[in-house]
Amino acid sequence: MQISVVIPLFNEEESLPELEAWIRKTMQEHSFSYEILMIDDGSTDSSWKIIENLTDDNPFVKGIKFRRNYGKSAGLNVGFEAAQGDVVITMDADLQDSPDEIPELYRMITADNFDLVSGWKKKRFDPISKTIPTKLYNAAARRISGIKLHDFNCGLKAYRKEVVKNIEVYGEMHRYIPLLAKWAGFTKIGEKVVQHQARKYGVTKFGLSRFVNGPLDMLSITFVGKFGKRPMHLFGLYGGIMFMIGFIAAAYIGINKLYRLSKGLETILVTDNPYFYISLTAMILGTMLFLAGFMSELIARNSPNRNLYLVEKRISKSQHTKSES
């Protein structure tokens, strides 16, 4: 199979038939072998019923339904696990991403040998309350990651199959998938200017929480990417430095007292010296950081990867055929 199209969605009943028809038309025009994976993230409208109808009409449509709303990252992660195509295309279900971009994205992966190609919505139809924070996040992401992309969070992306099978998307890490790919060793990351469609149905599903969760996830992914498999390198280093600073300071206080006593000079009790308590605190914190690194190392080396997203239903045309016969 050439292409898997992964579409996470939440309450997008109006747009799904039109989106499926648009994708089908594009695939047929270019004679692609494909599948469409629609991941229903616990929708409360009739989205799942529409997906069931689409699987009847198009055998290449498959549906996965969550028991509750987990978020876009969960939908992508489960979709990546189920994808069978050599190239995986992700797009949003609100018709703001154009399926007409798929052939060129596919070519960039297969012919230009990119591991990942991210869309860049150079001209956007979003309100300023969304575009300005997006620019700030993208600037921060470029600086921290070293990946020169203009739009990290564009839903329209193309991946080599090996990429999606070797990354795990959780929390709200969908914003930083290129960084996840880079940490996994897939460094050939490209960009393509894509057309951004004005929203035709419904409203955006992302609220004010993204302004808090975005920066927190950036810090989390930076830490996990650098130290997730070797936390002792961080905690042990800084714990050791802090302990040594406290130890040297405490030793100096003790030696200085002994020296003054040997010279018959007036001195104070060590416990009356405020610097003694600062030194002691530094030693205690250093020891705690070192132990935290040691425990984190044990956990990292002995914790299996687990999928915590509970899928309620899966559907495809083949399953319909079996149940009817």
Reported CATH architecture of the largest domain: Alpha-Beta Complex
Domains (count): 2
Question: What is the structural class?
Answer: alpha/beta
Q: What is the string of helix and strand elements?
A: EHEHEHEHEHEHHEHHHEH
Outline: elongated
Number of strands: 8
Q: Predict the CATH topology of the largest domain.
A: Spore Coat Polysaccharide Biosynthesis Protein SpsA, Chain A
Would you state the CATH class of the largest domain? Alpha Beta
Mean pLDDT: 87
| CATH superfamily label of the largest domain | Spore Coat Polysaccharide Biosynthesis Protein SpsA, Chain A
Amino- and carboxy-terminal Cα gap: 27 Å
Helix content: 40-55%
Tally the helices. 11
Percent of sequence in beta strands: 5-15%
Radius of gyration: 27 Å
Contiguous uncertain segments of 5+ residues: none
Identify the strand order in the major beta sheet: 7-5-6-4-1-2-3-8
Biggest pleated sheet? 8 strands, mixed
